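Write out the 3D structure for:
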Amino acid sequence: MEADFAEYLDEFARRDWETLDPDAVTDPVRVAVVGLGWFARDWALPGIARSAYTEATVVTDIDADAVEAVAAEHDLTGVTPDEFRSGAAADAYDAVYVATPNATHLEYVEAAAEQEKAVLCEKPLEATLDRARRLVAACRDADVPLMVGYRMQTDPAVRRLRELLDAGVAGDVIGVHATMSQTMLGELGGEADQWRLDPELSGGCALMDLGVYPLNTTRFVLGADPVRVSGRTQTNHEAFAGVDEHATFRLEFPGGVDALCSVSQNAQHASRLEITGTDARLILDPAFYEREDRGFAVVRDGTRVDVDFDQVHQIEEEFAYFGHQLLAGEPFHPDGEHALADARALDGIYESAETGRPVDLGDGDAA
């Protein structure tokens, strides 16, 4: 069976988007990092440094001690948020990476757009659909490139999965199952006083923080957008009062393909994406967490082939793609308009959870 799809798995970790020679890059894209939470410190800054196409030069955060410590550790320029918004250090960076709480993305992206800097904004775009639209409009009106941090889209395992689907290896896709869960309070240090539990800052918890992964990854590998969504949320633990602790949702795609997804911030760790077709099943397990190696398997007629491949640093790949596309003058696939489709879907799932009825997404709307 492996020979049937071997050509699509050759050089599994290849960068099919790469046209420049990384060894020839002498002036990488200089990046200002906005927000110095654990992800920016432990993953984004190392990813930027590992990428031949980017380098971090400036950092900012509302925590002055964090700015001082990170700036000293990495030999960077540290500025206050007010200094960043005023453009005090704008000559020191070409692009801005925004990794702050969801409801604060807009203000920093607007500042970057006013400074005519390219933007890489973490997902989800914002805490509400309206603010997400305003964020995309700010970049569009300033004519600055906007990429959204869907790191799954630059992971070779996900790109090979999409290639296999496009090549018809699975046959006609019948359905998708995805799950992503963690014990958030344990895995993030047990601290209940954090922005993900504040609905004003997060816009939601399990669905906004985790649900966007199966939602966007499914859209990417299928090359389609859902036309109708439905969902249910649940909260039991007192620490999650005011936000969704668990969520299940259904994405209805054109052609009768459904994706059934479950996410939780307070359940045993899981991370899986399975595409079932008429001819084969394609499985990523583990799938979504940056700290786990991806697993890739193809199952056909009772025979399972697990693909052994060189793993990549997901965030390095994301920033390499970001810097490469800027240096090459090429557009981003996961741009603002692409991300707005997720924002509409998330908004629709929350509406469905409140009303108990499916929500039609239609053909979308302009930013």
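The longest helix spans residues 336-355.
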